[in-house]
Amino acid sequence: MRLFRNVIAAVAALGLISCAAAQDRVAERPVAGRSQAQIFAASANPLAVETGLAVLRRGGSAVDAAVAMQAILSLVEPQSSGIGGGAFMTYYDAASRKVTVYDGREIAPAGVSEGMFLDANGKALPFGQAVLSGRATGVPGAVRMLSVAHQDHGKLAWRDLFGDAERTAREGFIISPRLGRFIGSSFPQNAAPDVRAYFSNPDGSLKKAGDRLTNPAYAAFVHHLAEDGVNALYAGPTAERIVERTHAAPLGGSMTLADLAAYRPVKREALCGRYRVYLVCTPPPPASGVGLLQLLAILERTDIAARGPQDPQAWFLFAEASRIMYADRDQYVGDPAFVSVPVAGMLDPAYVAGRAKLIGSDAAPAPLAGTPAGAPVAALDKTYEPMGTSHIIVVDAEGNAVSMTTTVESIFGSGRMVDGFFLNNQMTDFSMQPRDSRGRLVANAPAPGKRPRSSMIPSILLDREGRFAGAFGSAGGNAILPYVAKSMVAAIDWNLPVQDAIALPNLVARGGAFNGEVTKFSPELLQALAQRGIRLQPGQGEDSGIQGVMIRPGGHFDGGYDPRREGRAIAETVR
């Protein structure tokens, strides 16, 4: 900790601000009367929101609610997240005004090699083949991370947080239109035996939206998890079944019971930087918070705030800044336990100013990574991150807040199921081609015990006094960064209600590709962008899952959920 604070002191002059240091300087804020308080929950599924609110109404903490919400999301939104996956949680403690990141990212089993996804000729396997393999699953981290966070910040007993998930699994739930759409889709996982068996009727036909789905195996498992704690997943019969399932063909993996027993989450200092009047706190590597902060810092050096959502120049600036950010993020971000990530260099004001000058009057060729201070020599990254994932936000009656992004990676993870939940395919978040033609290692290459790079950026905003001011996060694979940044720009710079900010069209510019929700932009705006060299094309990654909230003047919650999904964002007053 002392070493970290020394590093923070050194880089603070460069504009990179320690959350702890910033909050240590604030004056105490009078505690509001306890006769009533506000609570808030947002998620991509209304059943999860109601579960979270029910926990908060019982006096539970934000972390308590997050545990319960993850348990039910694993059941009702299995295409996106689950207890067989991983998560990052950014936590705000109202009493100390400190922000902590709980890193529950999956890790590579001890038996993996850097060439785990290469064929006999040294070429990367097709994604559809890799994702269905036993090698695709990393040691799941979400459950143990939630357990550690609960030990630190829980108020209700662990065993009392799984009742809704157990009951809903046993009694069944109505398949939502979104889940029904994925059941009937053509992703590689839909052909997996476990996926077909789970979603099939007795006559062999597939279930659809409006049908009732029960999951007695999951009900039994979460009962076990509630009573016996995290060892229900990381040891014993369920762990044995996870190992067995990942060792099965095709391309069986190397996970062992020792890998599962050894998993530990990491508590990290949040990475924080100023944007306008706010301190934005977000996860450091292996997550992509440094990319979000760099993107916001580049945009702050433009006149985007003076524009608005109908101005094509605003979207042009956003697109070009995104491409510059991705060039650096893709090149340098990886697991800091294995590679040197030049975080301070990427956020150095002089370096950011130089990168911002690359934005001209027309779209430039695909930008190359810059050379920030401390940058190592690294090969060009070729990681493929498909859409997936889910995000939740919770604020409890004491003002503590959780912003958590959680995932099994792509649709239904690896397509392999154990005890009613899907296993992740997070190992495909590594660069499947680990070295370039010159033999140089990619920063995000596989290695035993390594965490794959993540695009997840569950973020919390603080005001000048260090008080909670908002939270944002999203699903969407590598498109998460522009989803979140767009929403922040719209809510902060353009002062849109958070719901309207989230609903604005998505534009994802990375390398030479400009993807977006083409039908949601006006023809005039699309034409103006084309005149600037940006010709938007529909892309697979625009199915975002943004949740957000801002504390507006008067202290009221201005919350929103992504209308592209089925979620809710609800604030209540409790006594």
Structure description:
The chain has helices at 2-12, 19-24, 46-57, 62-76, 127-131, 142-153, 163-171, 177-183, 193-198, 216-228, 231-234, 236-247, 257-262, 289-300, 312-332, 343-347, 349-356, 480-493, 498-503, 523-531; strands at residues 16-18, 37-43, 86-93, 98-104, 173-174, 212-213, 266-269, 271-275, 278-282, 390-395, 401-407, 417-418, 421-422, 459-462, 468-473, 507-510, 513-516, 547-551, 557-561, 568-574. With 575 residues, it is of the alpha+beta class. The strands form five sheets. It has a seven-stranded antiparallel β-sheet. It has a seven-stranded antiparallel β-sheet with strand order 7-4-3-11-10-2-20. A hairpin with a 2-residue loop joins strand 12 and strand 13 (421-422). The protein is globular and about 60 Å long.
